[in-house]
Amino acid sequence: MGTRSVTYIHNGNRSAETICAIYRQMDGYPSAMGNELSEALGGKKLINGISGDYNSIMNGMGCAAAQLVAKLKTVPGSIYLQHPDCDGEDCNYHIYYDGDVYNPAPDARLSIDFLSGDCLIWSGLLSDFDGELIEATMDE
Questions:
Q1: 6, 9, 121, 131: least surrounded by Cβ within 10 Å?
Q2: Residue 27 is part of which domain span?
Q3: Is 136 left (phi over 0), alpha (psi -120 to 50) or beta?
């Protein structure tokens, strides 16, 4: 049986409105889904207005959500869009930002919790995420 996950993309800090929820049927654990989130969005700057290197920016959180879906959804099945208020799964990811998109342009943040928010296991910058390291500390 696979580890199901939901990735919530928030339009601001973690308590802000959820604009997108992405359900993953299998491989939702940190070394799979978490690493894919980091690879897709980690290190990209959140901006308001397009300029510069297109590969290193997200033009708001709606743009971030679209970039993530484009990266994850390569075949039928496995990845599904859900209603933003959907219930959590085994592993839940929250992508958000703290600060103002105008000044300075922050990196997106990620937090992970298990079992519908009962246990926070990691929080930090997407670019600092290491799923294997997180799983190793969970096993201790």
A1: 121
A2: 5-138
A3: alpha
